[in-house]
Amino acid sequence: MTLSKGINASPATLTWRRTEENICPYSGMCVTCLDGCIGLCEIGKSAVRGKEILYPQPFGKTTSASQKEYPVDYSYFNIMGTAVGAYGVEADPDKAIFPAVNLETTLGAKGDLKLSLPIVIAGMGSTNVAANNWNHLAAGAAVSGVGIVIGENVSAMDPKAEIRNGRVVHSPNLKQRVEDFQRWSNGKGFIAVQANVEDTALGVQEYALEKLGVEAVELKWGQGAKDIGGEVKLDSLEKALLLKRRGYIVLPDPEDPKIQKAFETGAFREFERHSRIGMVAYESFMQRVKELREAGAKYIFLKTGAYRPADLARAVKYASEAKLDLLTVDGAGGGTGMSPWRMMNEWGVPTLYIQAMLVKYLDKLADKGAYLPPVAIAGGLTLEDQIFKGLAIGAPYVKAIGMARAPLAAAMVGKTIGEAIKTGKVIKEYKIYGDKVEQIFVAANEIKEKVGELAFNALPVGAIGVYTYFERLAQGLRQFMCGARKFSLDYLTRDDVTALTKEAAEISGIRYIMDIDAAEVEEILG
Length: 526
What we know:
Number of strands: 19
Strand order of the largest sheet: 5-6-9-10-14-15-17-18
CATH class of the largest domain: Alpha Beta
Distance between the termini: 44 Å
């Protein structure tokens, strides 16, 4: 499979070709490359701007995800309904209605971490697009009763952070992010603080546990969008120097006088800040879990990326032996604020494939009677049918779906519409509903009833967008589950979906559509 019309050009990198009709299918170049072309394809722009074209643009204003068409994905599976019975409610047409479906789920080794919906908003770290929308996203997560994770590098990127003897003692940015959730929390859901190599060295999680009232922390091995450390771009020399002093890799070297002069004269406009890759080892992993528990962590999670199968096996085994409260597995194809564009498309194990591996590995541990951590699967899942499939294909282990780009999009749209309402410039597509928040956002009055009118008026409008989006997902998921006659998430099984091709069945272990129910069919007809 190849990228969809995009090997040598993509909206993600603001590149395009001279001709879209005659393209070399393997290189992505125009069949005839013309001397005199100004070169707006990826090759041409790279000849002018070099490594800048590695990354999606414009940085800080977009999130991006893979364009690649994988051989098998969740669209190769269909949800099975039935006309018989009901699980989790009395088999009575007056009682087995879709509003009666219970979407609550529990995480944690003791099953005491409750979510109103089976959703965890995966780590949103130090990128501008996350920072600029965090208050909307966090408040929306809190009001909705779902989990949200503060991503890597937030404290070290905070220019006002106080670091003494190499440890964070105060970070206004991290403190504010935590409070943006805590202020609106309704007793369900959670906020967790993630850490990479640099965060761990700076003691960010210990600071969050001891000073900010955080109960959950997440160890990070990686994510589905890339297999290197986190990156951001810096538009000031001062910040580049600060972050190099704080231990980051900053390119080009901001301490080099020649580089400083080149930046000042406009030869380039941005520095790159890169995190280091972690080095996973069993002993150090278990030691870190012990340290975090001693520091007061009530819940400890692990997030791993789309690495090779042996690394997924390590994640499953280590999470089992450490009795972690959540293991999030992020498949390739999902999106992020800033990752190398080609890497997002050409690296890692896609979500469907890694979930199939995950189920096999968990089955092996289950057969041995080992502790199995609650699992979240992430990587490009955005709507209710995908949520159902992710939960069913991963049953009984997958308890939640990890999301990032989709709720962030809901927050950004909600914020934009809210600002338009505030300035009296309601966008015409929404003007048909009215000119007030309560008229335009269909769930606004429901939120107002939950939080009270005074609090509602202080709620970031993007949070209303997040809540409203989640409510759409909730109703859609309830409808699918009602059709499958499953009225609680605990009743979902792998037989609630079917593979549409034999290849999809072979990869996933889900039954092929022509074979499903075969024994029952014979019994009925026999």
